[in-house]
TrEMBL record:
SUPFAM superfamilies: Nudix. It comes from the Bacteria. This is NAD(+) diphosphatase. Residues 159-281 form the Nudix hydrolase domain. Its cofactor is Mg(2+); Zn(2+). The gene is nudC. Pfam families: NUDIX, Zn_ribbon_NUD. It is an enzyme of class 3 (hydrolase). CDD domains: NUDIX_NADH_pyrophosphatase_Nudt13 (cd03429). Its EC number is 3.6.1.22. One of its GO terms (molecular function) is hydrolase activity. It comes from Marinicella sediminis. The keyword Metal-binding applies. Belongs to the Nudix hydrolase family. NudC subfamily.
Amino acid sequence: MKADQIHFIRTELDRCANMREQKQRIKQLKKFKTCHYVPVYRGNHIYPDSDEEFYVSPMPLGKPDNQSFLGILNDELWFGCGLTEKEAVALEIQLECQFESIRQYAMALNDDMAHIALYSRGLDLWQRQKNFCSKCGTRNHLESSGHKMVCENGHEQFPHIEPAVIVLVSKGDQCLLGRKHTWPPNVYSTLAGFVEAGESIEDAVHREIYEESNVRIKNVTYFGSQPWPFPSSLMLAFNAEAVSDDIRLDDEMEDVRWFHKDELIKWAKDGSIILSPRFTVANNLISHFLGKRI
């Protein structure tokens, strides 16, 4: 599995960032361009039973101030519409479907729709978390077509992204996988953690692996990245080689162990272990190591 096969990153959508402040231009384009409005509630979308795609309305939904311009795809405009609880319930009753997480439907979406779903989810969650200014406490309102918050005193805030590193550590035909206490039984994945303040990405890779496993690494190479708004991460994926193989757990991890390629393929196939879902960059890293999709 190559890095360019990471889910959620392939799209023809033009975000048109230069248009976000051009309210009149967007208003004019709405008059003669096809527009799509994606209802979002707490980062979730509606997936009708009869369709593999999430529900998209040809008409605006919710309050005009809660419409976020996502960009242009195939000469058509796309907007995310953040709904209130009342609006969300009314739409669920109308469509006889409930708002659900993209996790369950990610692999059923084509590249463009998967990207738009994740994009609209990230904006919606950020907007809901920033009702008030973090500097002065006054109420925020949306500007820049949903991509900026401005409070009563003019303080600006932009979507918050938390960088996290995720690493496939190998030693010959073995790779290092672990599981946290809170995960479902038998689930294993690559080791990962957030980049800390004042820390480089490279330092974060070495620190996280050592903290969670006691393993020292070398030859760290960049693999790719994946947007991960659950709620606001950006996953930065790496491969690395182990210098040592003596494992010691920290409090966060329930288990960390070395898996041989042959064992990993066999156990994943018979269900003895459960690996990260196919839409995750962790799965890409493991599949790349094994030389086959798993």
